[in-house]
Amino acid sequence: MTFPSDLLRHAHALADAAAAQSMAWFRQPLDIITKADESPVTLADRAAETAMREILGRALPADGIYGEEHGATQLDAGRIWVLDPIDGTRSFITGSPLWGTLIGVLEGGRVTLGMVDMPVLGERWVGQAGLGATRNGLAVRASACTAIDQARIVTTSPDIFNAADWQAFDALSRRCAMRRFGGDCYGYAQLAGGTIDLVVETGLQPYDYLGPAGLIEAAGGVVTDWQGQPLGLQSDGRVVAAATPELHRQALAALAV
To answer: What is the secondary structure of 19-43 as a DSSP string?
Structure first.
């Protein structure tokens, strides 16, 4: 049997290995390749995920892996590691520090561990189901915000939305106390830490949202798709993360208009 402490130890090892690769390439000349979905990938992404997979292959060979760069293996396994070696590749390419490594552990279709590691900032955010959330080992918790007009909302970029989704987001966000753009995965960490109250995005993949979902839920927040359904490997990529159930319900209602 693998205990929660063992999973966390393995997750730290994966994040350390990814950071060793990605930081070696950060702010260095890079060969950039455009993937089929038109998002950029670098040698650093691929090297970081390879290092993570090698660790899992040695330590937990029966576990499945769902990774951004090297695909999915053993998705019928009882436990699946969902890996994004560099979330925010555009930030990485342009020298911004707001990129991170995302790790999610799915067991029985539920995220039991989520990690957002920010190597340049030196911040490692961890959430474990039933055990709470931490930043560098110190407890964090989502805010107590329950009203849209008091909420601080963030999304990565207007460019990620189609026209209809942007109209819904724009209307919601203009009702908020503050809206911010940018930050990639760091917005989810900020929500877990209580300094952001809402994150609304679309066009995401499981490796973009499952690690952050585990962190936010452990910090007391709520994360679903735009229909209020739990996130999983088959979700449509539209995500609403909120600090409280009340704020989450209001955001869903606003997006549905």
So the answer is: HHHHHHHTTS---EEE-TTS-EEEH
- Cα–Cα distance measured from residue 133 to residue 127, given in angstroms and rounded to the nearest whole number: 4
Residue 2, sorted as left (phi over 0), alpha (psi -120 to 50) or beta, turns out to be beta
Distance CA 189, CA 183 (A): 10
Is the entire prediction scored with pTM above 0.85?
Answer: yes
pLDDT tens digits along 127-177: 999 999 999 999 999 999 999 999 999 999 999 999 999 999 999 999 999
> Tokens for 73?
């293996």
CA distance 62 to 59: 9
Residue type, 145: C
The CB density around residue 27, as the number of other CB atoms within 10 Å, is 13
Name the DSSP letter for residue 130: T
